[in-house]
Amino acid sequence: MSTVEELVSKSKEAQKQFEFATQEQADAAARAICKVVFDNAGKLGPMAAEESRMGSAKDKIAKCRNKSALIWQSLKDKKTVGVIARLEERRMLEVAKPMGVVAAVIPSTNPVVTPMGNASAALKTRNSIIFAPHPRAVKCTKLLVEMFQDEIEKLGLPRDLVLGLENVSIEDSSALMSAADIVVATGGPGMVKAAYSSGKPSLGVGQGNVQCIVDADVDIEEAVKKIIIGRSFDNGLICLGEQTVFVLENKFGEFIEAFKKNGGYYVSTPEDAEKLREGLFPEGGPISRDVVGLSAVEVGKLAGLEVPEDTQVIGATASAVGAGDVLCREKLCPVINIMTYQTFEEGVAKMVENLEYEGKGHSIGIHSNNSDHVEYAAIQCSVSRVIVNQPAGTTGGGSPMNGFTPTTTLGCGSWGNNSFSDNFNYKHLMNITRVGYSYEESYLPDPEMAWE
């Protein structure tokens, strides 16, 4: 069994051999990483659901297929080798360089597509990568490493460009992060904090608690359908999944009717709402691990609710906004909080309050045909993504429906204690050398004109 030190040594040696690879070689390696997940989605998706004991095998298969194709398309034809930009006006060149060894911390919620996304970005930029798997995804990670290695070896590249920790422990993960050149941490707050404490440049993610608002001018049923898709995908594990939706007070009944019609079960009594709270957050504490990634029907049974077998999402209404009710928190299962507002500005203010409680910096969803309202929400909410008229849970990480960069790692900016507020992509794994020529004519600005 290789120690962390030995793994890092192997990774560094492989990366040195890859450091001056051609653009064609880097592209072929990135493509191979994505393609092997696409080709084996039917095996990898169910394996991830079984080993992690959370999520939907069917949705994980779809995620493997869709994300692999989307991420490769976003990498395809992008320059990451040699001169990548010529800035004629400034008489400058930008030259791409790799960073070295990438340590990638993998979450249990996404044990196939996250490694794929991290590895394809790393190889596209001529880095090597070592995975630190979650204890509930060790077999998945081991198989992925072998599959990735086999594919890149076919291209004549070193197998050790992709490696994984063999001994899964907090100590080894920490040692890896300290020994690598850059860390990409996709996981819980504890692991992300450890990444930022490693002494190495780190790209960590923040907690999700996506707030959603339905404006007065949209088709309620169409909005409901999208919200249910976003909230139910992969049994609600996605950090982009809608957590609370705010509806105009005089359209609440119409919303609930459409919710029930499209696979929602609404908890209408205070007694059942309390059962749901206790099932999700026992004694008001952290979310119960027992409910994470369960289907709506399974969550209902665990909470002692009689939920119809065809239920996709459970809905309830919190008794207060923000810290006043745990239902306003992130719920990693298909449960959504449905609340009302009287004016759009009030609805946005309530979203802000929930974000201050949990999830600041991540994302919001808005269903509206009013561009002024969309921009108002974007200005008022301290988030990195505003997802308009789409299922947030399935599109905020990149989709054919929008221009968000396809990713599985979502930065939340300084609001979420992160170093970036973007969708993680290959650009985050490049160093840039800038070459500056002198201008043909150089001069100091006229002191009197400079301040006009």
Q: Any low-confidence stretches, pLDDT <50, length ≥5? A: none
Helix content range of the residues, please? Answer: 40-55%
Q: Tell me the number of helical segments per DSSP (H or I, 4 or more residues long).
A: 16
CATH architecture of the largest domain: 3-Layer(aba) Sandwich
Structural class: alpha/beta
Cα separation of the termini: 68 Å
Alpha carbon gyration radius? 23 Å
Provide mean pLDDT, rounded. 95
Instruction: Please identify which CATH superfamily of the largest domain we are dealing with.
Output: Aldehyde Dehydrogenase, Chain A, domain 1
User: Strand count, sense and closure of the main sheet?
Assistant: 7 strands, parallel
The CATH class designation of the largest domain is Alpha Beta
Query: Order of strands in the sheet with the most strands?
Result: 10-11-12-9-8-13-14
| Percent in strands | 15-25%
How many domains comprise the coordinates? 2
Could you tell me the number of beta strands? 15
As for the CATH topology of the largest domain, it is Aldehyde Dehydrogenase, Chain A, domain 1
**Bulk shape:** globular
Topology (SSEs and partners):
Blueprint: H1 4-18, H2 23-39, H3 41-52, H4 57-75, E1 82-87, E2 92-98, E3 101-105, H5 113-124, E4 128-132, H6 138-154, E5 162-164, H7 170-179, E6 182-185, H8 189-196, E7 202-204, E8 210-214, H9 220-232, E9 242-248, H10 252-261, E10 264-266, H11 270-280, H12 296-303, E11 313-316, E12 335-341, H13 344-357, E13 361-367, H14 371-380, E14 383-388, H15 392-395, E15 430-436, H16 447-450
Parallel strand pairs: 3-4, 3-6, 4-5, 6-7, 8-9, 8-13, 9-12, 10-11, 11-12, 13-14
Antiparallel strand pairs: 1-2, 2-15
Helix pairs in contact: 2-4, 2-5, 2-6, 3-4, 4-5, 9-10, 11-12, 13-14
